[in-house]
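Fold this sequence, please.
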Amino acid sequence: MAKIEQVMFYLYIGWIVWVAGMGVMLMYAVITYILTRKRVSASVKTASGVYECDDISDSFILGIISPRVYLPSTLSEDAKGYILKHEFAHLSRCDHVWKPLGFVILSVYWFNPLCWIAYILLCRDIEYACDEKVARNIEKIEKAEYCRVLLEYSIPRSMIAACPVAFGGIDVKSRIKNVANYKKPAFWITVASIMVCVGIGVCFATSRGTEEAKVDEKASQAQAENVGKQSVDGKWYGIAAAGDCILLEKQQPKQDTTSYEYNMKNIFESPEAALKVLESDGEDWGMIASDDNYVVLARREQIADGNLTSESDARWDEQLRESNNSILKEYLADDSANYMDMILKMRGDNDLNN
């Protein structure tokens, strides 16, 4: 108990630390969002979904359900055009949804370093993908101008955030190299890549489905076997009778259970249930011997004159069991022993008909 309490204490402390860390992460995201909303509260709408603000130095998208693009009012017209292409690429890819969702996942698994690496790579790949989408639709000469704008209006950031989705600030040097070296992939390469991805996906999906089906089938078979075993182990069978004595065995009898001798009337939930059935005619029955898997039942009137009984119901079971359990053990130990001989020894006479 002391060890269990100690483990529970450590688990409780760990739970508190985990919840506290998650709360700090989510609070940081909420506070960042509120402060950013406050900074752009005095922005001016210049186009559908586009706003300019004097209090910001970088372009970004803010909002999930109704996202808005915010631009610094100091941008030149040329720079504004390239930046809007980049931000609209974010909107078309729903990056304003994926990035906050990634931060929520990071908040839950904040203790895992791999989640931090994954989130940082997610933010980087989001920007790479949008840069490539812009580069795909502009001329080679315009790529140089886009790189100049990216370099000029990039704002270095030392902390990651759930929002907003900003134009600069994430590995600008590598992004410029990526745009400069970007080449639109050939059509056949795109088609081949899609086919490879689909093929791999189908193979893995089929394999997984087959494995799951096999596992489910094995589980069903095991469950059926367990149920069958429980149904056998939970029953008691009347496997032999002599005079007014019955031997119950806790296992499926090897004999044909469809015969009259071994039909459902000889199957009981417990020895006590068998006694109730036998006593339903008003006769007095009791257990005169018992083992883990065997029980001998006898009708009292037939052996009332024997040496192993008394008039006391309290001693009816107790005295007979003490005397007869050793006889039952001898019978079970000797495969050649005769059931009637065992009953005769238990009755203390030589004739079952007396």
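Residues 226-232, 256-264, 302-312 have pLDDT under 50 and may be disordered. Residues 248 and 295 are 5 Å apart (CA to CA).
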